[in-house]
Every structure is written in structure tokens, then in C-alpha cells.
Amino acid sequence: MKNFRFIFLRLCIYLIAGILLAFYMEISRQVLMITGGVILCFFLFSFFRSGKLLFPDDLFGIASFLLIFYLGFFIAYFNIPENQPDHYIKQNIELTDSLIITGKISEELKPTAFSERFIMEAEGLISGDSEKSIHGKVLVNVFRDSTNKDFLRPGMRIMVPWKPEAIKAPLNPFQFSYSRYMKQLKVEQQLNLDPSKISISSYDPSFRDKAWNLRERLIQNLKNYNFGKDEIAVFQALILGQRRDISTELYRDYAAAGAIHILAISGLHIGILLLFLNFLFKPIENLKYGRFIKPVIVIILLWSFAILSGLSASVVRAVFMFSFIAVGLQLKRKTSSLNSLFLSLFFLLILDSYYIFQVGFQLSYLAVLSIIVFQPMIYQVFSPNNKVIDYIWKLSSVSLAAQIGVIPLSIYYFHQFPGLFLLTNLVVLPFLGILLALGILVIILAAIQILPVFIEESFGKLLNSLNLFIEKVADLDQFVISNIQLDLLQTIVLYLIILAVVLMIRKINFERLSFFLISILLFQVVTIYAKANIPAREAIVFHRSKASIFGIKETSDLKVYSEGKVDSTFLIDYLRERNIERLENFQIPKILEFSNKLILVIDTAGNYNLKQLKPELLILRNSPKINLERLLNNISPEEVIADGSNYFSFISRWKVTAENKKIPFHYTGEKGAYVLKQDKQN
Rounded to a whole number, what is the distance in angstroms from the first to the last CA of the chain? Predict the structure, then answer.
């Protein structure tokens, strides 16, 4: 039985390996099917063979590994839009003004300052009298005006003109990529629409859509009471999973205080709810069949909370995970909890292999796994006799255990470490339990319009106290370590080090000590490799609307050329990833030189009579009123660059002129920042 203790851990490793390979390896469908047939035959052969052996060998284990590995590859392969013949990106249909797409709104996203955003599940393409069945997710941006508030909602079927656009990649290096984020949600293209172009054909809500509408009605009920703007925003996020009303300032405060995880319903919320329900229904265990009845009731209530929260993807995943853990807890064995965790992971990845790339999914599983593994070890370090101190120490051990698991990944994604996370969690975790219980009560009473004033005021004060505490902690910015650079290889090796430490705590021997030391050495190697890959010198024309910003990097220094001092937050990602230690500001010159290339900068001023000057690069800024054709005839540059300070009408005209002269044209608002690396011979 020892070999089966962590069977689902091993199955998950095999499955994940297959999934990851599918995303990074191209293979034809015919080869995939033939390979699958061979692996299945090998598995069946090894299975029947193992039944006849007195002493089983490793052949059946190898066959099982190959089968689960292939299952992961197979599922991921058919999840990828490029491998789906009916996906809209695979349709070779000429885009015309008469082409119409039909689909169903499946999800509302956080709006921008200019548009409401939704995800639409495509259903058909209409061209004249013919309609073709298609599928796939589309990002729908609906331009805001005074009439389209709550214009669309999940469950609506719509018909709109089909003029798809690519979701733009970030225009400056190392910035957050919304296009990559959307791709991880299987959204390949977007539509930018005026409300007048949208025709609502029907309203056919699914069960999930009805849950979303229920959540919206509950939110509207809450807005009828006297909660402050920030209080109601946090209330919606904490209990109902709706974060659209959280201000940027409030979000930053929670991030700096190390409490950002409570603003999105995740494993933390469901875990606290599970512990509360386990405690509440513990007397049921004394009844006949109570050990079976109790987890059923707990699981039903967890899913009821998921419905209350609109059945958003993150909530469904968390409840799915903790439904398995609820059964594991009932068995009262740590191995049961671990197997339940990995069993839920296994099934979720089979349902949707794209989950593996989603940050919330990764952090939730790592946090829960870390708590199961590390919390008992940490708690045993200190055994207080005082109940109050023991309670505080339990909370501290849970918080520390969770952080061990998520810190490397959090730094990789968010590039900061809140030094006061322990203080924050000591206050927030017990606070969160009270808020969850009282918040659900407030929602129910508000829905039936019998919410007493004293409960309303008390709950409002609790929310306000939480926000004030978070604000005070966030103000202690000297405890927030920001702009930490950590790449993917370093993150993976950090987890190897954590694994090595766990193995040594359990039993120290030569092999485990060697594994630990090799992991440390490997981290040093990948860190040196990461630094060696940073170019010593490069020039860059950043993109910024209505402004010109150029940079020249030399080792760890960056010279920034602009009309005024540049806001450091604009360059923060570049400074971190390029390991910049010193920043110098200069006025934009007329001529720059980099890597034996002469760069001419042309703006609105000056008379450019350039008979002797032959620059390789030409930068246009501030919409200069020049005859570009004549200028190109005179200097014949290798490339023309236009930054974000130019009028778009000028850009369009210059682009045509450059194309006619067969000179490459780079507009930073379209192709992103222009980067010029130093020639190797220099």
C-alpha cells in the first residue's frame, strides 16, 4: 500500500508533463492517433502480462506513465484553438462588410475607462443567405456612452458585424501582456463595437448565467443601503467575487500590505468556509451515518456559496478543489488530504488543460499544498500553553506555511514581497472569517429586505476598519520589497530547493543533502545565465502617447532622452528586467549615435538640408511638417521610426511614402517599442 500513498501526485505529474508538451510541440492529427493506438496496445499488453507474473516488474508502471502522459497531451492538443477545425480562426472566409457573427455573451469582464468588456462564445458566421457553424471565445469591447450602461449581460445572444482584430501585445518591453492573458483564457481575437452595431436576438440564460444575474441583483440590493464606496467595493469582492468597483488606489494598498488575495474569492475563502462548516456540523458525526452525511451537507453548502458568487471560474475551481478536500478531512489522514488535493487537480486539468497557465489556479493549489505539508512542521516548533497565544501561533503557522508555497511564484508574477504579510494575515485571517459569516447573513437579509440598521452599521464599520488597517500597513512602504527580478528558470529551481528542504526535514541522508546542495548550485547557475543574457548595450525608442522617450542602456546605466523628466513608473518594468541601477535624464538631441549607427531625430523645428549627413536611422517625433519623400531621397536611411508623439494622420501618410521607397517603417503605436541592439562585432 505504501506505493499508492501519493498515487495521484504521480498521476498529476505525468498528466501535466503531457499537457505542457502539447503546447510547445506541433504534431499532425494522424501521428497523434497512431501514437495513441500504439500506447493503448502497449498498456493493455502490460496490464494482462502483469496479472500473470508472480513478481510484478516495471513494465506496467512505464505503460501507465505513457498512457497518462498521452492523455494529457491528447486533451491539451484538442483544447488548442489552432487544432480545432470549427474554430473561427480556422475559417478561410473573406472579411466583408456584410459578414455577421452570432454568439452568446458568457462572461462580463472588468470595464476600462472607454469600454465595457465581455467574452462571447461564437456560434455562427452569416454571409448573405448562408450560415456556417463555428465556435471559440471572442473579446467584445463595447464603447461606452450614456445609454449603454448594463446594455449586455451573460445569457444574451447577439448578432454583430464580424471585423475581428488581434488583441494588441504590450507596446513596451516587459509590460503586462493582456493579449497573452486572453490567450490563456482561449480568447484569440477581439471586436471593437459601437452599441448601435449590436443586435440582441434572444436571452437564453444557462444555469451559470442565472447565478450571475442572481449575484447582480444581490449587489444592487446592497447598494440600496448606506455602505461607503470603498466598503461596498470590498464587500462585493470578498463575498460575491465582483471586483469591478475596486479603485486603483485601494487595490494597490491591499497589494502592498500583502492582502491582495482576499480581494478575489479563492482557495483562502473557501478553505475558511470549509473549516467553519466542519466545526459547525461536527455534532452530526455522532449520528448514525453521520460521517457520510456531514461531508455531503458541507459540500452542498460550499456549492451554494459558489452559486451566490455567480459561479465564476475561480470560485468553481476553488469549490471543486475543497469538495475533494472535505472528504479527505473526514478521513482524518494527511495523506487523504494530499490525495484529495491532487485528485481534484487531476480532474480539473482533464476538464480544461488551460487552467495550468492561470495564475489564480497555480497560487491556490500551491498555497493549499504548502499548508498541508508545512503547517504541522511549523506548528510543532513552538507549543504554547496559553490558548490565546496558541490561537495566534496557529494562524501564524498557517500564514507562514502558505507563503512558503506561493512566494517564489508571487515574486515571479508580481515582482514584490510584502514584508508585513505576517502582521497583515494575523489580523486579516480571523477578520475574514467573521466577514464571510456576517457578510453572507447581510446579503440574505438585504435580499429579503429585513436587514436591521444595527447589523448594517456594524458590518460597515468592520469593512471600514479593515480598509483603514490595510491603508496604514501599506503606508509603511519601507517594508515592501519591490521590483524583484526573477525569471521562470529561477522560480522552478527555487521550488526544487523547497522540495529538497522538505525531504531533509523528514530524513537527512547523503542523497538528500546532495540534492539540496545541487539545487543551490543550480540556482546560482541559472542566475548567472539570466544576467549573462541581458545585453550590455542597447538603444530603445519607447512608445508613449503624445510623448517622445528614447533610451540608451550601457551596462547598468540608462540614459533617458525626453522633453521633461520621465515618470519612473513608466520605465519600471524595463529597469527591473534590464537590471538598471542608475538613471540619467537628458534633453532630446538632434543626432544620436549607437553601435556605429547615426540616428537623426526630426521634430517640428529646423530646416533639414542634409547633404553631408547620411544617417542610418531616422526618428520622426512631434508630427514634423516635412516632405518625407524628398528627405528620403536625400539621405536614404535604413529604417524610419515614428513614435507616439505623432498624429495618426501623419503616420498613415509617412507609412505609404516609406513603402513606396521600399524603406522599412516602424510605428511604435503599432509594432511596439523599437529596440536596437549592439552589433556583435562592436
Answer: 64
